[in-house]
Amino acid sequence: MKQTFLPLAVWYTGGDARATLVYAPAPDREQAKARWQRDVQYIRACGFNAVRAWIDWASGEPEPGVYNFSTLDLLFEMAREAGLKVLVQVYLDSAPDWLPVLYPDSHYVASGGQKIVSQTAPGYCYDHPGVRQQAEAFLRRLAEYVNTQPNFYAWDLWSEPHVVQWAYFDYLPPRSSFCFCHYSRTRFRNWLKKKYGSLSALNEAWYRTYRSWDEVEPPRFISLMAYTDFMDWQEFIVDKIAADLAWRRQVVKSVNPDFITTSHSAVPGILTVPYTSEGEPDDWRMARAVDIWGTSFYPKHVGAKETNDPAVRGAYLDSTRSAADAEGKPFWLGELQGGHGYVGTFAIPADAKDERLWTWGPLAHGAKGLNWYAWRPMMRGIESAGFGLTNLDGTPSERALAAGAIARVVTREMELFLAARPVRAQAAVVYNLYANMLWVGLREVSAYVPSRSLLGAYRSLFENHHPADFLHIDLLAQGKVDGYKLIYLPFALAMPPEATAVLRRFVEDGGVVVAEARTGWNDPTGRCGTAVPGVGLNELFGAEEIGTYKVDSTMMKVVAHEIPAASSPGSSTGDRDEPAAASALRLPFPVGAGISGSLFEQHLRPYAGTQVLATFANGDAAITARRVGMGVAVLIGTMLSFTYQTRRDPAAGQLLAAFQDWAGLVRPVEVTGIGDDQHRVVEPRLLEAGEGRYLFFAFNHGEEEVEPVFRVRGLAPGRYAVDELVAEEGLVGPDGSGVLKPAPGEHWWQTQHMEVSAGRPELILSKKLAAGEVWVLKLVKE
Predict the structure, then answer these.
(1) What is the pLDDT of residues 373-429, one digit of tens each?
(2) DSSP letter at 706?
(3) What is the DSSP letter of 270?
(4) Handedness of CA 428, 432, 436, 439 (dihedral sign)
(5) Is 723 helix (H, G, I), strand (E, B) or coil?
């Protein structure tokens, strides 16, 4: 799919309706149009180029076979008159109440056997053939209607996919999961048949004595002896959610194969584990199922102290981009916070400065569409008065003017923003689905440790201005590591055997691999091998576990601060330049310095030829390094990345940064002229658009004004025209009239011409950046 339009849309479905609710135009169509017209005119005047309307199954088919698309019809008409495209969000989960009358056995069933009676949500189980047939009929009829609308742009077929959603089952036990109805259990058996091929193979894997497939049941609890069944149930959950999304896509594409289909997660998969009461998806599997994959993006939602952290925001964006990139597809934000974060009694306001950061940030990470949630604040439910771009009376707020001004700029430069791609990352943080499943198998209920381990590794790259990818463990096992110099394994308790050979070749060719405590403890079936690290990784890292202690925190003492250079270039690098990791490598600490760790003390026994870099208090090895070919494999016997994310231990951060230097990572933009603390809150981003065109972004996430110098590297020699993209805020009428004011800050109003020579292959830029300011430049080779 070649994307030719970049939507900058607001969620709106008439008046003050909140998703998933839909109200028909009343008391008559013309009166509703007169009332809603003001909203649509404001949307256009602010600078947005599209509306994201929603429809739920309950209002769209109030009686079997009786369809009501009157609200959508009016919205399409008004948007067309205003020159706006329309995206359609479908809510099958808000299902009609006639379904259980037709199909009394269609309710979701919890693992404890409780039948869930839907209350607007979560709807009914799609594994029921009757429910699926009715849902297909509704989707097909809706697709036929939408296909007649000339200003329709794209579908979002599933908002924040889960097995069940939009409901809080507070009366159920906390480890309940779904769905255990007859039809879902049958689907699980069919999934097992495909995986194992025979009942005897399943019995061997699960340690069972089933005589018939009909006897096989999904696991409802974790047993002491083995949890292979529980690992399978979790993988079934992520496969089921992805398959259900692909089913929705197939239905609408049967009407028009050229339809653009999208979906978006509630939060990126790097922050979740599959086994929750709702059931969580895997972003990489989901990206295969639609044309564009995305995420919701709420920096000031519940937990805003962490989610509004610039590095965490970056991880949200880069992990979603990485999942889409793996399939050669674009990513975007299905939901972008537009207003105050009000959820129940949680409350935190948002302002125009927030909106500028939240809007430019995704674009700087390569997003190809933004959908603000929502135009009007929520007027019902536990989010009451929150999340809208407008004031409660429907007039545009300062947030709406700030976001709309950026939308106006991007619409004007749409071809450039569509073509622009982030500079290729040289470092990858591995997202390990199997380790997360194992974590649940160990009766850990929270994703906090796995997710914060990944965030810590990413944070170090973010703060040191290195672009980063998240690499799915399956892609690592398939050998898709070209272009990387550094691979982090911050949480890798379970490792597929296929990954071992890939990592060995990677290190032999000059790569740096860094693994943390208990890497390869089990394989993806939940089995432990003859050593930890297992599946042959002990030979790669040149060390194995003596014993492991669970701790809150620990301290490691540096005992060596240099690794000698590789003794010979005998690797598969051939005639290529010698990799940086082949040279002598140094730690940024003197002997005797301390480095903090968390959660585990994994005491290591080094093999011959392996160097011990740090020890625990009793003298056992805590960090080892082994040269393999031209690279190096580092094993750390504690959760270093988790420590950096949760405690910001300076030494942990320095060590993570040292690995980046060892690998020879090259920054696309070098930042100088400011102190270390300021360095961490200034974020440069460079995107390539081809034909000598670039987009440059500089963010000041700090609380003080800074004046950094940016050295933009990797540009071809020549003369460049440099223009600032200034967002001018205000309302613009249909005739183009309006009073606009530029976003705060000092601006370049004239084109600057700059030279990049072969002798000095960099562009030097500098500007005072106020707290919260974003600087955006267009670079075009003349």
Answers:
(1) 999 999 998 899 999 999 999 999 999 999 999 999 999 999 999 999 999 999 999
(2) B
(3) G
(4) negative
(5) strand
Evaluate whether 239 touches 161 at the Cβ level (below 8 Å).
no
Which one is predicted more confidently, 345 or 116?
116
Among 203-207, 219-223, 335-339, 359-363, whose mean pLDDT is lowest?
219-223
- Could you identify the residue written with the tokens 């032999």? 508
> Quick check: 692 and 743 in contact, CB under 8 A?
no
Supply the pLDDT for residue 572: 47
Number of Cβ atoms within 10 Å of the Cβ of 342 = 20
Total residues belonging to the chain: 782
The 3-state secondary structure of 107-152, one letter per residue: CEECCCCCEECCECECCCCCCCHHHHHHHHHHHHHHHHHHCCCCCE
- Return the residue matching tokens 């201005």: 465
CB-based contact 9:389 (threshold 8 Å): no
Task: Please list the residues that pair with 685 across neighbouring strands.
Answer: 697
Contact between 233 and 187 under an 8 Å Cβ cutoff? The reply is no
pLDDT tens column, 167-188: 889 999 988 999 999 999 999 9
- pLDDT exceeds 60 at position 573: no
What is the rounded distance in angstroms from the CA atom of residue 633 to the CA atom of residue 624?
A: 8
Nearest CA to 427 out of 478, 517, 504, 490 is that of 490
In terms of phi and psi (left: phi > 0; alpha: psi -120 to 50; beta: otherwise), the region of 162 is beta
For the record, the structure tokens of 691 come out as 């034909």
DSSP designation for 63: B
* DSSP per position, 425-494: PSEEEEE-HHHHHHHHHTT---SHHHHHHHHHHHHHHHHTT--EEEEEHHHHHTT--TT-SEEEESS-SB
The whole-angstrom separation of Cα 499 and Cα 476 is: 6
CA distance 69 to 145: 8
Q: Could you give the CA distance from residue 67 to residue 31 in angstroms, rounded to a whole number?
A: 22
CB of 623 closer than 8 Å to CB of 612: yes
